[in-house]
Amino acid sequence: MARASSGLAYPERFYAAAAYVGFDGSPNSNDKDIGSRFSNDVALILYALYQQATVGPCNVPKPSFWNPVEQGKWKSGSDDRNVYSERCESFFYLYSWKQLGNMVSAEAMRLFVKILEEEEPGWYSRASNSVLEPVTDVQMNHNAIVEPIIENRNSFAETKTISAENGGLIETQDIDVVSEGLGSVVYDQWTSPPITGQRPKGRYEHAAAVVEDKMYIYGGNHNGRYLSDLHVLDLRSCTWSKVEAKVESKSVETPSPVNITPSAGHSLIPWEHKLLSIAGHTKDPSETFQVKAFDLQIGTWSMLNTYGKPPVSRGGQSVTLVGTTLVIFGGQDAKQTLLNDLHILDLETLTWDEIDAVGVPPSPRSGHAAAVHAERYLLIFGGGSHATCFNDLHVLDLQTMEWSRPTQQGEIPVPRAGHAGVTVGENWFIVGGGDNKSGASETVVLNMSTLAWSVVTSVGGRVPLASEGLSLVVGSLNGEDILISFGGYNGHYNNEVNVLKPSHKSTLQSKIMEGPVPDSVSAVHNATNPTRDLESEFEVGQEGKIRDTAIDNFEPMV
């Protein structure tokens, strides 16, 4: 049995964790000690988060020791080399702290505790301090880290974890944790939580959105029939219900109702107190793009009247909210013609604008994914044509309206279409999709600052998470981000809900430890990471020792 801490509140929970790690409260406390207890990368992250939480953003000036004379001592192997090496190591700790920028203290405290729990799940039961916190016996599955959540003291013993071995759902036995809503949270593992209420019928190419503590599902395709039903999953009670929506009349003078056509391949965007359903395939398609609005306050559908020249009707496009505008790219029209045009809808004026961007755009496609980074860069990944699927990455600078195709780093995902993606900070998570032969089994994440891919987890077999046309949203439980997937098609139409909590260690690690960014991504890099403009820095060896690389070209931070 593992022991999982449950109820100690912040900041006490953070201070208990810091004391366990060995920090004594001084600005430079015990960085060498934690370096001997944890791997080098984890030690750097813990040190940086502790300093951020207790001191604030790093305002330490450039170290005075970094000068040509001291560099010469290093390179000549003088008696001062050991001292200089220690100073280099201290500099690297400061650099890691600097990378956290203006992260608020409360967030740093929370991430510090979460990373410690990932490294040592039973840290609290072994802590030497006398602060008592309720603990719960948890049966661990495949070494997954389970974090119980306390809110309304609902107790679930039915959470299922998707095995990375064969994709089957393995019952997590003897879990008797006090938790809320979606049950036990497992780091970097998909789980199928207990759900009550009437589930929506299985579907794919539907659309989903989260508003407050509710996930809305609209439309989709089931057995070749387009759907127009609206369902909501309460993330606190984990209960489905169907929304009995009304249809708004066109006007007082002409009270005939607006025709809300069933659709699939549309997009759902929360905006103010409405859900906007954008485009989509329909049985009798209109000639131009349609935008439907569901008013969450009064429960009615209506059609938005837009101005300017709208795009042609389509489905399988990407729609990305950037500030007060929607950026629409690609898709497939009613004649099955693939598109790669670019349009913007201003949500304040409801005016369309077709964009003639410079550079080489992505090839015509549908079923791709899009995300925005730093409110400036639109990223397009994957998708498919009639003959093939893609795994290319394209970036559109929304200020200069110029396309580029940067070099991807890390473990580049296999080609896919029909996948879904969401962003959490600077990390873009991609789930599902396929190539018409098999589903993509890996859940991957792209650091949008470094354009480096990594694998979060993998499933096996024909499970919903390896489906095409599934949806993916970001929800929140107990203040923590959580990924929620629904539906998809992998030979049958799914209506399962699966959840995953990304570990903070992997995302912070990629931010602090990532090496120099290639020239091909300098446009993104220079605008979003000015403090990382280093030709070369330090690398961390497998033995945890810091070694110097290309000191001649090193330019330390200011």
From TrEMBL:
Residue ranges annotated for the ACB domain, each copy included: 10-125
Pfam families in the record: ACBP (PF00887), Kelch_KLHDC2_KLHL20_DRC7 (PF24681)
InterPro entries reported in the protein's UniProt record: Acyl-CoA-binding_protein, Acyl-CoA-binding_sf, FERM/acyl-CoA-bd_prot_sf, Kelch-typ_b-propeller, Kelch_1
UniProt-recorded Gene Ontology molecular function terms: fatty-acyl-CoA binding
GO biological process: lipid transport
GO cellular component labels: cytosol
Keywords, alphabetical: Kelch repeat, Lipid-binding, Repeat
Gene3D superfamilies: 1.20.80.10, Kelch-type beta propeller
Listed transmembrane segments: none
Family label: Belongs to the ACBP family.
Protein name per Swiss-Prot or TrEMBL: Acyl-CoA-binding domain-containing protein 4-like
Organism taxonomic ancestry: Eukaryota, Viridiplantae, Streptophyta, Embryophyta, Tracheophyta
